Amino acid sequence: MKLTVNGKVESVDALTLRDYLAHTELVDKRIAVEFNGEIVPKSIFSETLLQDGDVVEIVHAIGGG
Amino acid sequence: MSNTLKVGSYTFKSRLLVGTGKYKNLDETGRAIVASGADVVTMAVRRTNLGQHPSEPNLLDVISPSKYTLLPNTAGCHTADDAVRTCRLARELLDGHRLVKLEVISKSRTLYPDVVETLSAAQTLVKEGFEVMVYTSDDPLIAIELEKIGCVAVMPLGAPIGSGLGLQNPYNIQEILDQLSVPVIVDAGVGTASDATVAMELGCDGVLMNTAIAEAQDPIKMAEAMRLAITSGRLAFEAGRMPRKRYADASSPEAGLIK
Hints:
The complex is a heterodimer of chains A (65) and B (259). Chain A is mainly β. Chain A contains 1 helix and 5 strands. Chain A has one domain (2-60): Beta-grasp domain (Ubiquitin-like (UB roll)), CATH 3.10.20.30. Chain A has one helix at residues 17-23; strands spanning 2-5, 8-11, 32-35, 38-40, 55-63. Helix content of chain B is 37%, strand content 16%. In chain B, strand 9, helix 7 (193-202) and strand 10 (206-209) form a beta-alpha-beta unit. The interface between A and B is medium-sized, with 25 and 38 residues.
């Protein structure tokens, strides 16, 4: 299955969004996730099923003015 | 100072708001922010680098959301849609926190605010329940529109972002102050302490700055200078300055002079 994550196409072997984030070691980090244009609350990461072609944005806080 | 800065549903002790960009490292960022005495600290929202250093320290570990009011910005957004998406992500990132700094920047070398996109994003964000502090030009008509839309603070530039030129049009800032009832915070353009004081003496409710502190030779010392400058400027505004006169007016009485 292919996902577009932060603008890059990735081959992913994961059932849910939580599985994918656990694999990338991000699941417990201070991040926010947009899934196909909609915000996904942390509480439903494990219920969010991945499908071929899904578009994911994962963001965090950095320094800025 | 007895008085506080009220922005939307928030109350702050300090009238200095500071950014977290351009510092050498997170340690310097943290120390500068402590020295500034600021309650409100801005941050940016960016894509996470996947697969690289997942254990790297995070800005939110240094600037704890329990200690400071984080003000996520939409810096780098050139359209209303991107700014709105960024605010939604920020709200999720900060556990439902509704205060945001809206800025929609043109792609020009001036980084001047794109007020058309800014007005559109402000409308959407206010409808979605965000408390919007909005970066804008020093055009009084746009400032009035942004207040009408429901922004909780209007933040005109003093000069272009990162320029350090100081307040270029104090008459426009004064006009905005006269016309608006929401807080007016000068955002961008301050270069050194006196620039911040000038803004506060005009009656601005606060000043937001980043580069003036981060790019000083000694950012920690400059952060303290800014804290004092904001306090001094506010006190001078409250005290009410003497009128300007064209000619001298002797300080010592004429009466009783020896002959």
